[in-house]
Amino acid sequence: MANHLRPLFITANFGGVPVPKVMVDGGAAINLLPYRMLSKMGRTEKDLIPTRLTVTNFAGGITKTHGILDVDVIVGSKELKIAFFVVDTTSTTYNALLGRDWIHQSLCVPSTLHQQLAHRNRPFVLKLRTRCLVPINKKRIELQQSDPLQKDC
User: pTM of the entire structure?
Assistant: First the structure.
């Protein structure tokens, strides 16, 4: 399989327990934890926060959640308290799924192409460029800040 098509798997620490095969998925809006992982993490159904929410998967199937589990997740040097929706799953290749909720909170940049996760201990500092280069007919032109096309850069 081509590198850019492979899912991104990492190893994370969930409440003091190392968990391999944690999938980072920018297409998932929430964080998921298979029900089978509760016992492996030393947790029980009593640790879950009750909820009536259902989860819709990419194929449109609806799954009822068992509840929400708050977990201290450590990836690299970044530690965050993350809410996982606990669901019954029988055919997952992952032990947990970290979605956009975790990605945005941790200020991470996942790359399936490079099969790595870039993050920092402090917030990113983004510097906006005042100019950008746009290829036109194999030539490059430089747009000035006042140029109306600048917003498309």
Answer: 0.74
